[in-house]
Design goal:
With 317 residues, the protein is α+β, with helices and mostly antiparallel strands. 23% of the residues lie in helices and 35% in strands. The chain has helices spanning 11-25, 27-34, 48-51, 83-86, 216-225, 238-249, 254-272, and strands at 52-69, 77-82, 108-110, 116-119, 128-132, 141-150, 155-164, 173-177, 186-194, 200-209, 233-235, 276-278, 282-293, 299-306, 311-315. It is rod-shaped. The relative contact order is 0.24.
Amino acid sequence: MADVRIKSPNLDDVFDKWKQKAVRKDKKTMEKQFGTKGAVFSPDAISAAETVKETKKEAAIYFAIKKVIEPAKAKGDEELVRADKVAKETFFAFKGDVDKDNWDEDDVVPMYNTLKAEACSRCSGKGYSEEKCGSCGGSGKQQDKLIVLEGEEQDKQKKVFEYPCGNCYGTGKVRERCKECDGQKNFYKYQILPVPFKRVVTGMPVLHSSAKTKYEKEMEEDLHKLIDEVEGIKFDDFKTLDKKAEASLGYYNKDIKKTIKNAGKDYKNYEKDDDTNIITKIHLFPMIQFFCETKKGKSFEIYSIGSEQKFITYSNL
């Protein structure tokens, strides 16, 4: 990009433009601050020589962003856990859309209404497995041999005595707690889904100025509305702007250098923000700050933003 020089407006032109605008906007205040008692008020009587006490050449950097708030684009995920692990998770439930500006949690969260039981595949939802009883070999019976003496002769006989196995309660099977579900029969699955953020699209101006003023927010809004009426130099990136700022403006100071650095940091943060798109190039504007005083002794400031060809004014009077 070749060097482009932009010329600041003439101080008298800025003052005259501000004066005309101020009288149209609030003639009563202007008459109160600059009028002469007993005389018909005329804006022509307000002179820059008497009003302006000091001027400073500054710079302003502007770009615009579009912020789009909507549910996260992630598809979500699914978790499957044992029953004793469910209470360790924090679940969310939503009755409507959520304002992202008021949301401090993750954009993707566990949803309570997706929590469902799923039978353990190992024990088929019984909580246990059945094995052949080791004590009775699965017969459900225990056997002992009895000695029976029959008759007067006491003829010795051996008899089999059967009774239910006490280990398996006569069923032939014993139950072992399922090691997979720990006897809880089910696992529980739930989905981790995007928070239903309210879709909001907003266009926002971003202004950084080297003038040390508390009125930057108001100037930012005015500039955003009237951007087509202001001439500046456009840049694609802050690296180029930083190199060419002094040549473009024809002046430079430590406050302008600091402003470029701070604006560049802001720009990078917006680039990283998934919800934000930068929708304009970076504009560098000459800026003049007037320190003024009315005839009644009230201090105020006038600012011009733009070139001698196209500029706007702002004042806190």
